[in-house]
Amino acid sequence: MARFEFKLPDIGEGIAEAEIVAWHVKVGDTIEEDQQLADMMTDKATVEMESPVAGKVLQLAGEVGEQIPIGSILAVIETEGAAAADAPAKAEPVEEEVPLADGAVAPTEAQEENIPVTKVAEQAPPPPSPRVEPEVAEKEPSHGKVLTSPAVRARARDLGIDLSQVKTTGDRVRHSDLDAYLLYNGGTVAARGSTSVPRTDETIKVVGLRRKIAENMAEANRRIQHFTLVEEFDVTALEEARQMMNRDRGNNPKLTLLPFLITAMSRALADWPMLNATFDDEAMVVTRHGPVHMGMATQTPNGLMVATIRDAQGKSIWELAAEITRLSEAARTGKASREELSGATFTISSLGPMGGITSTPVVNPPQVAIVAVNKIEEKLVPIDDEIEIRKRMNLSLSCDHRVVDGWDAASFMQALKPLIENPLRLLS
Q1: Percent of the chain scored above 70 by pLDDT?
Q2: Could you tell me if 387 and 380 are in contact, meaning their C-beta atoms sit under 8 angstroms apart?
Q3: 6-24 pLDDT tens trace
Q4: Which residue among 10, 271, 280, 405 is the active-site one?
Q5: Is 43 designated active site?
Q6: Which end of the chain is more exposed for a tag (fewer CB within 10 A), N or C?
Q7: Which 3-state string (H, E, C) describes 246-266?
């Protein structure tokens, strides 16, 4: 028998240490070659660490949330023979680190979409009464036709997942592919014969991307002098135009409110460039940007990410709809590139019908402004001595008061009025 010391490899240029996000094994476990040991997070990516050898786990480096220097021992594994001691460490990047924002984009029907389901962490107990996918729970697995590691195969078998139904962009199915499959099948797949679990207290350590979100939000509130302006808009005509265009859309993606709102904001920002800006508060320099790189705050299994629509001002309603769908899907499945998750100059955030009456979104530095889209409500409104039922919606604009004056913020919101309330202007 031999002891193999699994050392944390160099997982990125300039990276000196990585945080333990999750352990997938424990001391005493017998593991297979290529079995996932841990998830490690740097300031650039989350990386899956897979064992290059089979054997028994003798020692693990630390607890979840601890920082481990590059080159230090992550795990000690007892192996058969001495050859395994020279086996290289394996690491696979699975998720880009991203800028964060307050809120989440709903890229489907504006008044019909449900809130995205949050992924259940592997180390946490499943929620009560999980929704079961009948085809998955009843179908006999066909694991032999799919290339994957023994650990992934065993996990899929325990969950009752048919690996032939799991999509992957790589050469084999990995744990991250199972995670994505679970997300799009109700958050979890119950094993055959499972029953509801009694509710119990649960303690979850704030680590990884969730900790980055907490740190960034605290830093944003500490450094930025926020103020929020809320304005009500009549979206009756906009909703009628959207529904009409959807009826005749052909092969185009289904339109939500977001493409219309992004078009209106892109045009208004051309006249009020101080809101389409970034602020370097150390150098005390404001950069007013010509193009509008619109950030969309998107809910993902790991937390909020901001996907960026480049040059939004130059795209049509249909092009924006396609880009919203593509980027939201990429962010949620962890397939978005670093460029697609950075560089926004202005952010829009929406929770669709769950958006509430009003909100106070947090500015995502170095940006200086963010708009939150609230839900649509039908109200009785006096118009020309008559009472009509109109669809009304609030937009909440938060700004960095160090850079943006109240006059600029109010003027921007008023510039949006004729565009949003008269949607034909957005199509010209």
Answers
A1: 79
A2: yes
A3: 998 887 656 788 888 889 9
A4: 405
A5: no
A6: C
A7: HHCCCCCCCCCCHHHHHHHHH
Q: Where are any strands of DSSP class E within 329-383?
A: 346-350, 369-383
For 206, phi then psi, to 5°, come to -85, 105
Band of residue 418 on the pLDDT scale cut at 50, 70, 90: very high
Q: Is 234 a catalytic residue?
A: no
H/E element holding 227? strand 226-234
Number of Cα atoms under 13 Å in the Cβ half of residue 25: 30
Please name which of 16, 14, 66 lies closest in space to residue 38, comparing C-alpha atoms: 66
Q: Would you report the helix, strand and coil content of the chain in percent, each value rounded to 5?
A: 30, 30, 45
- Cα–Cα distance measured from residue 264 to residue 423, given in angstroms and rounded to the nearest whole number: 9
pLDDT, tens digit, 9 for 90 and up, residues 189-200: 544 444 455 678
pLDDT given at position 292: 97
DSSP character string of 211-224: HHHHHHHHHHHHH-
The two structure tokens encoding residue 207: 């680590």
